[in-house]
Queue: 2 jobs
Job 1
Amino acid sequence: MAGLAITRKRKVAQFLSDQTPNGHDSTTRNGKATLNGKADWGEEQDYERLVRKGKKKSEKQGPQRLPIKTPEGRIVQLAADENDTQEPDSDDDDNILEDGESIDSEGDSDEEMREPEPVKPKKSERQRILEAKEELANIASSVNEEPEENYQMLRKLQELFDSESSTTIKKLILITQVSIFRDIIPGYRIRPLTAEELAIKVTSDIRKLRNFEQSLVSNYKTYVDTLGRLSRAVEGKLGPVAISCACTLLETVPHFNFRQELLKIVVERLSSRIIDDSFVKCRNTLEEFFRQDDSGTGSLEAVRMIVKMLKAKDYNVDESVLNTFLSLRLLTELNVKASYDAIDEPTQKMKKKDRIPLTKKEKKARKEKKLVDAQMKEADAVVVYEEREKNQSETLKTVFLTYFRILKEKKPALTGATLEGLAKFAHLINVEFFADILAALRELVEDAQKEVEEEEEDVDGNNNELTQRERNLRREALLCIVSAFSLLADQANEAKGLVNIDLSFFTTYLYSVLLLLSLSPTIELSSKSLHLADPSSSEPVEIPSSKVNKATEIEMLLRSLDVVFFKAPRGTGEISSTRVAAFTKRLSMAALQLPEKSCVTLLTSLQNLSKKHSRKVHPLFVSEDRVGDGTYDPYIDTPELSNALAGGAVFEHALLANHYSPKVREQSKMVLKSAASSR
């Protein structure tokens, strides 16, 4: 230790001896101070004068908080509070050069030292759907429990739908909304409040109810508008869901506001030629809507929309759309006829002496009560009979005008449906329209006859196409016959001035197609029948795909025979014995070619014919009573010219007595027995 002290003293003494008396260095080199001939001292002074780099921002902020670990496993450094941060040093001379220029710190160093923000992990689609289901279920349950308190949730649902990007979650929101509206919509129609009603002071309960009703109508309108926009979107994934929701609302709450908007969505979908699940859903909804409509106002609106759509599409729609008219309640409610035995007497007013005197206060109270009762009737949707009859009359008029227009323009795709509709509503048609309808039906039958004649002459044509076309024409002609006779069957009293109407044209055509119908291979088939195609045909006969009101050909034949011989109107005159005998003979011939079930039903109709016109058909079954000259011509298509009573005994029943089916044999014996025993 003593040696170290001595050495230190020597160095200090040597340093002092080298300096001059005025304090300057003894030797200089190039203007720099030297120590023992070296420039060590000057280099140290220059290093001391160099500019120090400023502290980083993170260092100037003062003390930091301790890092934490997130649930995802990331370590995050938290920033200190403003109160905990210290004031930066006031000595900023280190950041300034001698010439006064400041040095900016490098931007890259700040970005490198800055802590990266934690990135939130993305949720999977399945997790988002599960969370959306839970949230929608909570909203739906809260609204259904207390709708007057939580009606603000309806707006929240619409906002969620507008902000959501997932198609699946949007579908869930639409379904949730329709379920909520279906449960909370009241049983009456909500009208807007007038200025006088808004100016009146009401209690808190009434104000609360008004707020709920107005908010419900506003949100419901927004929802219906959204359904309409989605249903019209081309290639939209939400279109089928929107149409299904609209159908659900139309079925469950048809009395509520914005019914026309819902009907517009359904009718627009029916205007398409593409038949899919949405089309069938709309069609079934419309039919159910017609059946459940009590007042007739909704049915009238829907029928007018359908007719407007048919005109816009030039009637190029599926025939099942026109068949929805058959679900109207006109068939069961509008055919009420007046009684011929009694009349409805008007209500007599109470005599003045029987009236109870009332004070002014009591009269005012009674007047107010009547006003309240009238409002309650309107709110409770009480159907007035006069109003319903008026609506149904307007609906019937619109339907008939549509049918007449289709018949005049001869739209082949809708002719069959139109004739079925006329046959259904024939008893409701006004007598003034009979002449025009019968003329249109006769034109259709004449067209069918011309087509059959052309098919017989065209030997090079395709047999399958001819068979298909011939079958459709026969069906339309049978419908014409049923419609023509049904027009007058239930209107006998109103048709007294139409005694000169001759329907023999339709009867003659029915007689001419009996043999062709008996040879038809599809006489027992309809669109609902499950059958195999003909293996020997390259292009098999196709049964129409429509499943609405499609009867088989044998059913149409039996209906025609029923209206001609058993329900003939009074104005058509009595059926001649020659015509009845010709029909009996040809029906017996047709029974030989028919299948078992059709043969039994036709023989049953023949038995009823022989019972009703026993004297006219008796000579055919008993040879001793046969009168006439000449021979029977089975190939002529006019019943009066066939000469059936001359020599046309019904020997076909002798062949039917040996039929393989015991039911046919038994029914044939019943025909012979009833015809021979009756005089």
Note: The chain has a mean pLDDT of 75.
Job 2
Amino acid sequence: MQKSAMKAWWDSSHMAGGNAAYIEEIYEAYLENPQDVAPEWREVFDQLPAVEGVEVETKHSDVRDLFKKLAQLGPAGRVSAPAASGGTDAKQVKVLQLINAYRFRGHQHANLDPLGLWKQERVRDLELSHHELSEQDFDSVYSVGSYAIGKETMPLGELFKSLNRTYCGSVGAEYMHITNTEQKRWLQQRLESVESRPAFNRDTKIAILKGLIAADGMEKYLGSKFPGAKRFSLEGGDSLIPMLKGLISHAGANGAKEVVVGMAHRGRLNVLVNVLGKNPSVLFDEFAGKHHDTLGSGDVKYHAGYSSDFATPGGDVHLALAFNPSHLEIVNPVVIGSVRARLDRRHSNDGGAVLPITIHGDSAIAGQGVVQETFNMSQTRGFSVGGTVRIVINNQVGFTTSKREDTRSTQYCTDIAKMVQAPIFHVNADDPEAVLFVTQLALEYRNTFKRDVMIDLVCYRRHGHNEADEPNATQPLMYQKVKKHPVPRELYAQQLLAEKVIEQHEVDKLVSDYRAALDHGACVVDEWRPMTEHSVDWSPYIGQEWTVPYDASLSVEKLQELGKKVCQFPEGFKLQSRVAKLYQERLNMINGEKKLDWGCAEILAYASVVEAGSRIRFTGQDSGRGTFFHRHAVLHNQKDAATYMPLQHISENQGPIEIYDSVLSEEAVMAFEYGYATAEPGALTIWEAQFGDFANGAQVVIDQFLSSGEQKWGRLCGLTLLLPHGYEGQGPEHSSARLERFLQLCADHNMQVCVPSTPAQVYAMLRRQVVRPMRRPLIVMSPKSLLRHPQAVSSLEELSSGVFHNVLAEVDELDAAKVDRVVMCSGKVYYDLLDARRKNELNNVAIIRIEQLYPFPHDDIQQVLADYQHVKEWVWCQEEPQNQGAWYCMQHNFWASIPESGKLTYAGRPASASPAVGYIAEHNRQQKTLVEDALNFKEGTE
């Protein structure tokens, strides 16, 4: 190379900073096989200078050391390179660097903002002078390397225009952060070959216009008919409607059978009517305050979900818009979970049969952590769905916050997607053809590479956060522009009129026809079709009460047969020594040599469920082994780390079972499993917390979906939460699963809250959740120390009945007539009470366990307490502090259960701001005191 070429090379930003490692990787590949790297890089490396006589094909470290030395010297002190073939070669290198610069940074000069408010910083890499090129070189012809324009050479002037059209027009593509060369070349081919703007036929253009007319017409109709009512208008982001319709149609043409959409409230009503085909008259009645349904309390109209079928070139596609509360991004993992269930039902391992679409807000996607959690799950075994098409309605303002430095710390709201190397297509929403182009490109990328892809629909918000807000108060400059800015429908109609694609009278007719359809109240989506067999059948579970009869019994012989199968593993499969001992003990339990512990009974429950043909999906941070080393459903070969799950080998026609150790997330994973359970009613779907306390990281899911989804939306869900709970002196974050929070949310028989205390109880409880034709969430305060407690054991005969007892009676043979004190409790504290009573021979105190706290078992407890109606002293004993646990939430039920003459007192820890103490000595003192208080005795101090 000539000296000037070498200097220019080193001045290029692409050889510095964060790109150094990337270039080293390319160079290493070049050393192994020059044909494996792109032509432009091969040409650069071919011209590298020799290093003190050493050939370039030898040691890479010598060349790398030279690079470091030159970088340290700086531009002024760099050594001269040996001369190359001349100035033309040097400029050829610069041309290739120019192409690379546009691929890397062209998006920063793209025309993305419809309002023209974005003030992009100058990017010198995109200027000819930065590459020692000028307009004087425009007529010179250069090789374009891998630039996929369909030509090997081009005049620089023509190339420069092409680069600007491709990367600086209405589409700003970010994809050079992707490390996979195949994916980058795939994207380059599709962007550069059409300069980011393919030619659409007349039918497609008319369809786009009709979508814009529908989007605009819907909002104007609502605005005039219901002035001032909240509707969270789509106006400014109108392109979303033709975008979604085009995406669904393209998905159907490519084999999709279902599409599941998740979105917050912005534009939701428009999507409901103009994409899913909800009858406008129904929506108008909702605005008028009319109520069509009799189930539940309902929700505001812009949270509502909907389902329909949609005609596509590949056949009808089932559409589902997920219900979503105002917690914005929380719906995303719910949608992904629902999609995973649908894929499993269709046996679609590559994700092709079901497409997830998540629609985000620009402030929300950058600000809410569940987005990161969901991205992090996207390529994991237990949560992947073959990629999600993610769309941001980027109206450049949050509620009232519009300054970028106040909403995020990065240039784009979509930068979070780079964590999974998703390509990001920024697109000007006022250019609906560019929008449709990137939509089709995004779907094809997702289907090809089975990965997430992001579309940043840069638009604006014509009104305030809602239609009653006054946006000028906080965004005066933006809304001065908005008021003068034509709506997308008008802009695109003018474009088509100029192109002579359509006549003005045709435009007018399309507008009037849509308005007439709204007046008529009929469906306005031509592609709408009545739903057929796409959706899973929930009818067996609708309207079922808690008392619906069911039979979950199994013979002892059947249990032994299942038990032996869950203890089998391949010959030569070496277990870790403690696991091997556990499995030998488990086999002894099955053979009747000893009673069953918790882990054995739990595994038998799962075996019986899959043997009957039902599916089990079980996730949590340690679910395969069990946090407390008790489950070991997934075995690990100590020789080669291979895994084996005996539960997958119960019978030839068994139901599938999946147990995954999840990513370290509560919120997104629980939301995913909620979505899964709402789409697969026949399955036993379980999420387990590592410690029950950690479920509070998913409180939004518990509050907005699990506890109230049925009442708000009529949405049934059979998700089971296993929340390890019990006071063993492990401190504030490892004791309490916050039982009181779940009980506070209990009403309308919305969920079950159980505290099983024996292996037979957990076996029956898990089976009941599948066998009983009733689907509501099951919240389990599951144990820790009871997993190995010598008294927490059960016989095969006890399991055989399959009956879960809501209340467990006194187990010792006490003379009921001599009992003058009854202690009611739940969970582990029972065994502490039992031990103390036996040790001190307190035969006047009966201990009753309430195993299901909600729905409260009034009838069952009356039967158990029938022999104690003479008792005056009644106690509720709990390990939790007085302001926590069951005491405050359930006290009215306890009072209703005891005789009118009885007196109810509390025995437990004093009220506390923290769920538990951190000092083991203080924990032991508190535990001893509450047991003594409950039994009304004082044990001597040692």
Note: Residues 1-18, 51-63, 65-86 have pLDDT under 50 and may be disordered.
